Amino acid sequence: MRKISKIGVLTSGGDAPGMNPCIRAVVRTALYNGLEVVGIRQGYKGLIDNDMMEMKHRSVSNILNLGGTILKTARCLPFKTDEGMEIAYQNAKARGIDGLVVIGGDGTFTGALRFSRKYPDIAVMGVPGTIDNDLCGSTYTLGFDTATNTVIEAIDKIRDTADAHDRLFFIEVMGRDSGAIALRAGISCGAEAILLPERTTAIDDLIKNLKDGHMNKKSSSIVIVAEGDKNGVWDVAKAVQKEVKNYDIKVTILGHLQRGGAPSSFDRILGSRLGFAAVNALIAGESQKMVGLQANQILMTDLEQALNHHEFKLEPDLLQMMDILSI
Ligand code: F6P
To answer: Which residues bind ATP (predicted)?
Structure first.
């Protein structure tokens, strides 16, 4: 069995609340087991630029409550090339890193999988960290809960003003390929419609529903549009405005505020559990896997399987509910 003596930890791709609790758990679990830990700054970019630092207990003090990531993050194009990967490998070897914990989403895992196939002597363990909740093998990803709560708080506020003015709001939420935030926030806020990348919404049906709602004395309406929806928030709003003349229409794009903020209790616990499990999995000789939450247990999934978006499904009962509860 391979023996790990030094773990490198990095956060990559979009930051997500809960990454800091996870880094803290990785560092302290590794130190508890007599391993050394290296923090890699700005994700894979730090591996290529040799931007790394030894981490001790006090390196991760008082970070449980912080959003973002103390290690910083980046989307690193050079790591996609063979040359970039080779430099990253040589730098990691020179530091004595023999195990890597990579915290991020699908882009991060795609890089991790390629890297560990090319250089199998460095073990790699993935931790699902993305607000998009779009990885197989973990019911929830780090940051999704906090981001959804942030979105709900914002939409509740918009509902107040929408109601005061009898307005119809189109609200774009994050999720390039995933409607997870849109669906949960939509159900939680009683949105009149939720547009998701996972299914096509007929604009005619949407217009009819909004008109019916108006006739049924709805004083405001909220349509949540996930970033990755095929129609796009502006085109939908324009198409509806043409047909629903008596409604004053506004568009709000929530944007990056969805990624910030102190992690929720759920994300602090999840980050701690996943960081702890990732280090223990590396010590146990595992590689090319992701630790994830399944039925409240932390289990492992092959990285390749974790990336299998096609198998990822939004909860069918939530999808069914969304058409029924907001009449
Ligand atoms: O992957 C998380 C995410 O927040 C997506 O929902 C969004 O499309 C993307 O990141 C935005 O990325 P950037 O911060 O690079 O614009």
So the answer is: 14, 75-76, 105-108
Strand partners, 91: none
Ligand 1 atom 12 nearest Cα: 14
Give the residue-averaged pLDDT of 8-24: 98
Confidence of residue 310 (pLDDT cuts 50, 70, 90): low
- Ligand 1 neighbours (beta carbon < 6 A): 13-14, 105, 130-132, 174-176, 227, 259
State the residue for tokens 């409240």.
296
Average pLDDT, the chain: 95
Q: Considering only the top CATH level, what class is 144-259?
A: alpha beta
Is 36 annotated in a binding site? The answer is: no
Domain ranges, ordered by start, for the chain: 6-143+263-310, 144-259
For the stretch 139-158, pLDDT in tens is 999 999 999 999 999 999 99
The catalytic residue positions are 132
Whether 6-143+263-310 shares its CATH topology with 144-259 is answered yes
- Give 256-289 pLDDT, tens digit per residue: 999 999 999 999 999 999 999 999 999 999 999 9
Is residue 28 annotated as involved in ligand binding? yes
Query: What topology does CATH give the domain 6-143+263-310?
Result: Rossmann fold (3.40.50)
Question: 86 alpha carbon to ligand 1 midpoint, in Å?
Answer: 27
